[in-house]
From TrEMBL:
Domain (Fe2OG dioxygenase): residue spans on this chain: 192-292
Similarity comment: family membership: Belongs to the iron/ascorbate-dependent oxidoreductase family.
Gene3D superfamilies: B-lactam Antibiotic, Isopenicillin N Synthase, Chain
Keywords: Dioxygenase, Flavonoid biosynthesis, Iron, Metal-binding, Oxidoreductase, Vitamin C
SUPFAM superfamilies: Clavaminate synthase-like
Top-level taxonomic group: Eukaryota
GO terms under biological process: flavonoid biosynthetic process; pigment biosynthetic process
Cofactors: L-ascorbate
Keyword presence, Membrane: no
Molecular function terms, GO-annotated: L-ascorbic acid binding; leucocyanidin oxygenase activity; metal ion binding
EC class name: oxidoreductase
EC number: 1.14.20.4
Protein name (Swiss-Prot/TrEMBL): anthocyanidin synthase
Amino acid sequence: MERLQCVTSVSKEAKTIPVDFIRSADEQPGITTSHGPVPAVPVIDMANTKHDQIIDEIVKASQEWGIFQVVNHGIPPEAIQQLQRVGKEFFELPQEEKEKVAMVPGQLEGYGTKMTNKQEGPKNWVDFLFHNIWPPSQINHDFWPKNPPEYRNANEEYVKHMIPLVDQLLEYLSLGLGLDGNVLKAASGGDDLRYLLKINYYPPCPCPDMALGVSAHTDMSAITLLVPNEVQGLQVFKDDHWINAKYIPNAMIIHIGDQIEILSNGKYKGVLHRTTVKKDETRMSWPVFCEPPPDTVIGPLPQFVSDKNPAKFKAKKFKDYQYCKLNKIPQ
């Protein structure tokens, strides 16, 4: 399979991109991005000693945006920098080295270029690497690069610091709905909640106004925790406009995913977002999707369903939800 990094070298010489990467006018970021004054993605300080204030800010951001940034989140800057360093080194390896961890049919883990063979429409300007990083029972090291040698240690160190933050966020999201603090985590799979890392690699694109790194979507996770490199590119759909989500160094970007939206019966909103690319810079990002185990049934919690407020979503096993979403089948 041809990888985007190979396409890029040809496109750079030609100063054009293949037609199958060109978006329609209603998707092209050069046409659809709002350039007027735009609101900033909320920033929440997790070190605030007034926990009620943190909860209120998370609730407001999750209802109005579906995305927020957290600072003083407890993940050491060195752990983030190491994660990013080894990920960048992997994508800079010779092609044959990267192919050693290539995706195989029927698996969502591994190095790849597109998610499914049924993908229709324009291609995304991205190569990626997927693999589980937690819990240990779900880790398959066949899909973890052996090169660079520090790759495994950097990922294990990073997730060790991430677990308490995920627990804290799910607790605050629960309390913000008037629930006991453990409810959303328990409903999402409890200690069996799976952490799936994706590294997105968006190489320079000769025609960035016509292409997208990743097209508009919501995450199918419960929540997603993301760190990018220094190159901006995340866009959020807010108030009927695509706006640039400017993020701050060492912050963690939090996306509300579909499963939390479903559990809350729409009280919290999954964020619709997309990724733009740059002409002369490589953008990278490291989202971790916190997902329920495949057989966990996710539906609106009974506390949020009544005659006046019926269920907005069907209850179904996460693996069935995932299959429908990946194959663009209505839920």
